[in-house]
Amino acid sequence: MGDWEWPLILFTVLGQIAIGIILMLWWLARNRNLNIQLFKRGVHVSGGLLLIALLASLFHLGHPEAAYRALAHLGSSWLSREILFFLLTFLAWIYLFRLSRQQTSSHTLGSGASIITTAETAAGGQPTSNLSLGLGITSLLGLLGIASSAMIYVLPRVPAWNNGGPVLFFLLTTGLLGALCTLVLGGNLLQTAQKKLLLQVSLGCTIFSLILSVIYGSMLSASMEGAASLNYHLSSPLFWVRALVSWLAPLLLLVIILKSPDLGKKNLILTVTLLVGLGEILGRALFYLSATGIQITALF
Amino acid sequence: MVKQLGFVLDVNRCLGCGACAKACQNGNQLAPLLWRRIRRVEKISKDQIQIFYLSTACNHCGDPECLRVCPSGAYAKRRDGIVLHLSEKCTGCKSCVASCPFGAPQYNLQTNKAGKCQLCHERLDQGMPPFCIQACLTGALKLKELKDIAENQLLRLTAPVPSLRLTRPSVFYKPPRTTKL
Amino acid sequence: MEFHQNICPRNCYDTCSIISTTHNGVLISVEGNPAHEYTLGKLCPKALDDVKKVYSPQRIRYPMRQQVRYSGFWERISWDEALTLIAEKILNLEETYGTTLPLALNKYSGNFGILHNAMEGLFTGIGATTRAIGSPCWSAGVEAQTLDFGTFFCSDPLDMSKAKLIWLWGVNPAWTAVHQMPIIFDAIDHGAKVVCFDTHFSATAARAHRYVKVCPGTDGLLALGFAKVLLEEGLIDPNLGSYTFGHEEFIHYIETEISLDHCSEITGVPISTIRNLAIEYGQTHPACIWAGFGLQRYTNGGQTLRAIDALGALAGHLGEEGGGVQYAQFETWRFSGAIQDPFHPINSSSNADQASVDNLTLNQKQTDRLLNINQFAEEAFNCTDPPVKMLWISGRNPLSQDGNLQQWKKLISQLDLIVVSDLFHSKSSEAADLFLPITTHYEHWDLNSSYWHYWVGVNEPAIPPVGESRSDLQIAWDVSSKLNKLKPGSCAFPISGDEKETLLRELGPPMLDILGIKKAEDLLNGPVRAKYPRTAWENRTFATPSRRYEFFSSRASDAHLSPLPIFIPPLNSSIDAPLRLLTPHHHSTINSQVYATGTANPDYVLHLAPELAQRYDLAVGDRAQIWNESGLLEVVIQPILGISNDVVIVFQEQVEGPLTDMGQLTLGARGFALNETFVNLRKL
Fold this sequence. Notes:
By secondary structure, chain A is mainly α. Chain A has ten helices and no strands. In chain A, helix 1 packs antiparallel against helix 2 (36-58) and helix 1 packs across helix 10 (266-289). By secondary structure, chain B is α+β, with helices and mostly antiparallel strands. Chain B has a single domain, classed as Alpha-Beta Plaits. The longest helix of chain B has 9 residues, at 19-27. By secondary structure, chain C is an alpha/beta fold. Chain C has four domains: 2-54, Phosphorylase Kinase, domain 1 (2-Layer Sandwich), CATH 3.30.200.210; 64-133 and 335-440 and 466-496, Rossmann fold (3-Layer(aba) Sandwich), CATH 3.40.50; 139-330 and 544-558, Dimethylsulfoxide Reductase, domain 2 (3-Layer(aba) Sandwich), CATH 3.40.228.10; 579-683, Beta Barrel (Barwin-like endoglucanases), CATH 2.40.40. Chain C has 24 helices and 27 strands. In chain C, the strands form six sheets. An eight-stranded mixed beta sheet of chain C has the order 5-4-17-16-15-6-7-14, sandwiched between helices. In chain C, strands 22-26-23-25-24-27 form a six-stranded mixed barrel. In chain C, strand 4 (64-66) and strand 5 (74-76) form a beta hairpin. The radius of gyration of chain C is 25 Å and the shape is globular. Chains B and C meet through helix 1, strand 3 and strand 11 of B and helix 7 and strand 10 of C.
């Protein structure tokens, strides 16, 4: 069984939220109707989260001062690749940050969601392509980083991890928390259609995550070590808290929000986001805690 | 010519006494860590009992997982097959600890780095046997160049998971006898 | 870097020759001596930790005084204060009682080095004192073999590699004599078959071809059953008449008194197994039996050993290269004894009779008050004229190892002064007033023999004493010096000397002859193997009164024992204590000696058959209690294989037991029938 890996939990969950937000911004920017204020907020918040995530990851190392050495083995080490992609993501984010600083702050936005300011107009002539490109590159690098993160755990020694599970789960976290956090950040800056889309993404990710977990769980019982991981999950109260706050609660609440007339239940959205955030952190903690490596005890 | 050194354990001579593990710990000044450990295997049927011990350290695999996953290049494979952990390059990321199917690399809380059996390569280079082999009371544990052994008389240490065979551990066991009741 | 020759002085078959390495006066490593044909450069895991043990933070480095017994509050005092306290108490007792008999010594096998006999020398030098004599270990078997063969002698351990059949009977060398295992494996490689007889499936059984579970205490009957099959199958050595005595009487006894049905029922071994094994034993030459010490720690232990000896004789395996019945030997212990007797005329002719074996001189026998070491507390408490008032415990931990702890408590309460000399605190030092720190074998000169192999060697100091520790010999000189200073002439033991010179004086002409060296100094070059033949009794000329192997021993009948080896049932369990408790040695310790450094004592583990555990509703790791009328012990449950349902095992923790049948003649006191202990069990 594994340990309670705080640095890794923070690094992966916060990093995934940060990249999720940028991914959502990119998606919103695809038809030129990203609110510039939302862009700024999103970039600032994701940058902050990314920075915290990177700092947290250092605490996983026995020698944080030697972290640079971890880039030395790109040829076969997914950890090296992860660090490279996260660093590149951060560089790309700096570009986004520069873009966000170039926005004229004098531009007045109307109050309320009824006044839409597209990125192009808000940027005062800034070509949307730049912004979209920046968001796109950052998102892609970030997604590669997340996939590399997940690949670190695809190990023959750990049957629970030695499959597509880690990659899918990490990406689902990215989508779910990215969308929810963007909803919280966006608030009234989002058009109803955008809100609806983000809510649908959240709901879709939740449902997918639930189905995937059931399939994954049933797959685990195939190996003894996998069964141990599964058993660890099912017998841990943390898992049931997680199931409640990041599967059941969002399923119910997201449907309620989607059914409300103007999708404007701000407090409810915040509640779902916090619950899901808690659930994902617990889920990640369990991911590390339940890891059961093969113990070779016999001759064959 | 690239060769592969490996441990060969005659489980019928191994008493599970732990002299190998203790000599390794004392010689390499590892306490409280142990790079070599003894596992007891027990198989019982109505008219016979099979109890034997597996003394294992790093298996100096042909395709070491530790070497594959290490992000800082702190693992190297020598021409004689020894898998070395280069402490000066280690960042203490624990990737190797999580990835080795045999639990060979261990995290040392005193150095905040990983560490594992280095096959006493400095002693080997001086023509001396590794501490574990020098200590083995019954001659059960030996170090051999693997191409010299008739493999059909030996068993390879592996788990019933095909992917684990890929690391090609350089350790072999003589088939255990059973005790008749 | 410097290298030194050391010898492990523990009470162990192997008595290893060690090469220690020091650097700037610090011990840095220990290795087996490759030039020693039994040690062969290897050490057991216990000895591998010697460096840690020497420098252990738990080791006591200064003389300590405990004002209130059991308080655990120890204060450091100087050697002068400690010696003054001891000397004044001795002189005070002598004045009060007009004799030094109130002064008692209880010393045994903590360190088998010969120079440790300085403690006996000191007490002899003081005058007539009270002594613990005998052995808690092997007395019945020693006597059995002495009756059968005339002296106590075994083949060289290497001889076993030539056997074609090896019966390991009640012995667990995989744990207690590891250096014998490669010899046994070599025999296996040459085609030998190994059968292990024991009460439980031991680590040795796991390496044998076959395991035979024998009900505890019935091994003698099993041997007689085998003998019966040999008779029936005509597998008796046809030449018995030429080198044995009384075989007809023995055969008559077997024919008339032993039935295989009864044998099978009592021993728990199926008749077919008895028959097959006996035939194999009768047909295979050479075939060797190694009888362990545990076999004879029963009320019938001596008879058991005699029956096994007789089986070996009947099949013609005695004197056979790679055959015989091996138990142990005491032939390489014929030291001059000068150290333990200040009145001993040094360089006088040998006094290597049986008495010297037990470190007694004629002088002492006449004056000292001798108490059986196995009933020491009880006998010492019952001494009234004069009572025992001062006790010195050396090389022992009786409060952990003896059976009768209640008796010890009573004795302790009447003592004025208890001195413990040891390396570490122990159960016994909890009750002591004074603790004297002693040196390890890396810090003093010594001289060591084995009771299994035939090598004798000098142990040289590798490092100066750690802290203020002193050797037993130095302590003896110091006490004598203090006594003579306070009252000139009060102690005949030397007041100073040279350890090395003292050591060399122990190698008198008989020892030099045994070792085949010209002068004592020759032994300083390295251990030497005694010039005894590799195969015991190879000429089939024995040391008995009849010069033959004695199935029928008149010395036995003189001692009111049966002249023939017979089966006497062991003690039976009762309703109050239905389970037999066995306490064999564990691989990690010898008796209660400290090996693991810095670790607290773990729980006592009770090993028992899975079915028995089930009957008491116990599972692995459960806490339970075993108890009988003399004690109670909390244990943790661990089921093991191949053990009877009426036996439980705690490796090396001992509870009260009665005495063995033999031992009185050879070692002066009967042995400790440790394995005749019965207990009850309950879940906690």
